[in-house]
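User: As part of a screening pipeline, I want to sanity-check one entry by hand. Below is the sequence and the SMILES for flavin-adenine dinucleotide. Please return the complex as structure tokens so I can compare it with the automated output.
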Amino acid sequence: MTNSSSLAFADEDVRGFGMCIGGKARVLRPTSTEQLADAFAAVAKDGGSLALRGAGCSYGDAATKNGGQVLDLTRMNQILGFDPATGVATVEPGVTVRDLWRRAIGHGYWPRVVSGTMAVSMGGAAAMNIHGKNNFALGSFGECVRSFELLTPRGELVRCTRESDPELFHAAIGGFGMLGCFTKLEIETKRVHSGRLRVWGIVAKDLAHNLQILEDLKDKADYLVSWLDLHGKGPGLGRGLMHRADQFEAGEDPQGLHWFDPVLQDVPPNLFGVVPKGWLWPGMWGAVHLGQVKMVNALKFQAGFKEERNSPYLQSHGAFHFLLDYVPRWQWMTRPGGLIQFQPFVPKEAGERVLRTLIEQNQQAGFVPYLGVLKRHRPDPFLMTHAVDGYSLAMDFAVSMRKSRREALFAHCRKLAEIVLEAGGRFYYAKDAVLAGSSFPRVHGEAAVAKFRALKAKWDPQRLLQTDLATRLGV
Ligand SMILES: Cc1cc2nc3c(=O)[nH]c(=O)nc-3n(C[C@H](O)[C@H](O)[C@H](O)COP(=O)(O)OP(=O)(O)OC[C@H]3O[C@@H](n4cnc5c(N)ncnc54)[C@H](O)[C@@H]3O)c2cc1C
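Assistant: Here is the complex for your manual check:
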């Protein structure tokens, strides 16, 4: 019988995407369900615990285990099947969003829900129940999962659909890796009739205008997302540039069929065909560290008027969705301190008041995020859901190396969290690093948390699956 010390765990530095959270851990990369089951059994026998990790794109501590053991699923990365008649893919958990669209697009399909980076794995996407720029229309990632296989800490391999076991289906999806490990998923993609989207840039003069555009277009547009200049004050508070993108109907864009070629959807390695994009982040480092974000934002906002005049224009699906991937390692611009993202979800009725207060409080406290992204959402049926009928505002804060300044930033975010929770808002653990354990039942309600804890006790009685996030929240 294997014990955990005889498994080939290697010492590594395991951090969240924001780089400021995590630390040394012992990492194992299984390549099959059998190896995964062996690791579960061996660690359980030793009374230890494990964190599951996909591509490590969660900003905070959702996939870290400081000083502990981590199972990295990225080597279980086979697409086991793709049905061109239905667009349903059968995948292992380490398959990425990029792998999926590359397989689908040649057949005229695109994933229904994608994140802002294509590096995310299917296991991580299901465990966090990710959302895209179309959350208001098509819902969350879990809504396009047809079935999954889950290896539970008890050692059972459970095949689950929303009909066969609705309770487990709706708790494991969005259950941040607490109930078992997805080993196989069936994922629905959607038909597209062109490899391109029709895109509009729309200047929003302030927060109210931004929210009004979301309300006016949410029943018409396929995708909506707004960049916000969080330095904007007075009449310009919450100003930004909204992007609307629509798919083409069949036959509307015959030339767009050429763009079913995955090479044309991918991110080019060089800027203007010459400059390696890996060299761009040092320039952005200067903007963050030399206080130039305010000026860059003002220029970007002004440039929005030209984009609006030139709208609509055509963009590949890849270019529209994965803008952040255009600058490899962009997060390094926040080195050495790294970054945290804080993404509150606020019900529609309280949206303008709460988001205005958050933006003002940032400015008053001297913690102005270098990036703000506004989206429209709709509720979903998952137990640990972060969605609301309302808005989210993702705010990226650079973290200082100075301990006092870092602690002040975290305390500031916790203060913002109070305002959000008071208004009935929620949080998204892929983007959280600061919430106190006492907030966990306030995000989901006492009843939902009690149910989740009962499911944890049922499927993981030894508490084999643990992460730094789970410890922080007291799951
Ligand atoms: C640049 C950038 C842009 C992003 N944009 C968006 C966005 O637009 N929308 C959005 O919703 N999110 C977005 N995210 C967040 C990202 O989608 C989530 O953090 C997602 O969960 C990351 O997937 P991952 O494979 O990296 O998983 P990880 O971050 O490695 O893990 C996430 C969680 O999944 C669990 N897990 C991983 N694999 C499995 C498995 N096989 N079985 C069970 N549990 C597992 C882990 O324990 C952990 O709790 C973005 C992140 C980045 C870096």
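Points to compare against the pipeline: The first strand starts at residue 10 and ends at 15. Residues 17, 51-58, 62-63, 73, 93, 115-117, 120-121, 123-125, 127-128, 130-132, 176-177, 181-182, 324, 430, 467 surround flavin-adenine dinucleotide (CB under 6 Å).
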